[in-house]
C-alpha cells in the first residue's frame, strides 16, 4: 500500500512537468521559426487578410528597403477565396490586384513560387513595406529553407514597384524642390 501512495505522489509531482514539455509539433515549429529568423525572415502571429477569419495566423515577412518599396497586392489560395475574385495562377486568386501589371521577371518569380508553396500557404501579401506569406507552418525548417531563395528573388523583383509616389522634400517656401 505504501508503494501505491509513493507512486501516486510521484505521478502527481511529475504530471505538471510533462504538460509543460513541448510537443513534437511545437519543437518542429520552434526549429522552423529559429531557422527562418536566422535567414532574415520576421515572424509574427497576426490576423491575416482573409474574409471572416477569426484569430491569428503565422505571418512570415520579408521587408523591402525604404528606398525600394514594393507594390500593393493580395493573393489568396482558391480554397479560401470567393469565386468572384479574379483567378491568377495555379489555384490562386487576386483579392487585391496590383495597380500596374507586374514586370515579366517579377511575374515569373511569383508564378514559380505559387506552384511550389504547400497547401497550407493561404495568402501572399505585398505592400510598400514587406512581402508576407500567411501559412500554417506545415513543413520543417529544411523544407522551408528551399523557399527562402525564391522569396528573396521575388522581393528583389518587386522592390521599387511601389504604387505610391515617393515623397519629395519641400524647400523653405513650401514648394517642392525644383519647381
Q: Can you offer a commentary on this structure?
A:
The chain has a domain at 29-47 and 56-158. It is built from four helices and seven strands; from the N terminus they run ααβββββαββα. It has helices at residues 2-20, 24-38, 104-116, 141-158, and strands at residues 42-46, 57-63, 73-77, 86-89, 92-96, 121-126, 130-135. Strand 6 and strand 7 form a beta hairpin. Helix 3 (104-116) packs antiparallel against helix 4. The N and C termini lie far apart (95 Å).
Largest sheet: 7 strands, antiparallel
Fraction of helical residues? 25-40%
> How many DSSP E strands?
7
Shape: elongated
Structural category is: alpha+beta
Organism: Halomonas qinghailakensis
Protein name: Preprotein translocase subunit YajC
Task: Characterize this entry briefly.
This protein is α+β, with helices and mostly antiparallel strands and 179 residues long. It is built from four helices and seven strands; from the N terminus they run ααβββββαββα. A seven-stranded antiparallel beta sheet has the order 1-2-7-6-3-5-4.
Amino acid at each position: 500500500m505504501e508503494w501505491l501512495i509513493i507512486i501516486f505522489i510521484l505521478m502527481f509531482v511529475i504530471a505538471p512537468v510533462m504538460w509543460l514539455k513541448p510537443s513534437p509539433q511545437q519543437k518542429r515549429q520552434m526549429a522552423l521559426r529559429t531557422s527562418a529568423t536566422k535567414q532574415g525572415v520576421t515572424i509574427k502571429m497576426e490576423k491575416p487578410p482573409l474574409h471572416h477569419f477569426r484569430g491569428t495566423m503565422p505571418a512570415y515577412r520579408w521587408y523591402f528597403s525604404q528606398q525600394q518599396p514594393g507594390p500593393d497586392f493580395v493573393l489568396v489560395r482558391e480554397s479560401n477565396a470567393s469565386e468572384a475574385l479574379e483567378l491568377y495562377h495555379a489555384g490562386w486568386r487576386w483579392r487585391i490586384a496590383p495597380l500596374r501589371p507586374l514586370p515579366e521577371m517579377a511575374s515569373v518569380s511569383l508564378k514559380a513560387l505559387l506552384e511550389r508553396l504547400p497547401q497550407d500557404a493561404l495568402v501572399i501579401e505585398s505592400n510598400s513595406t514587406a512581402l508576407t506569406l500567411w501559412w500554417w507552418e506545415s513543413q520543417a525548417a529544411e523544407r522551408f529553407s528551399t523557399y527562402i531563395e525564391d522569396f528573396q528573388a521575388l522581393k528583389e523583383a518587386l522592390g521599387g514597384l511601389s504604387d505610391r509616389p515617393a515623397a519629395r522634400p519641400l524647400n523653405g517656401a513650401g514648394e517642392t524642390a525644383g519647381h
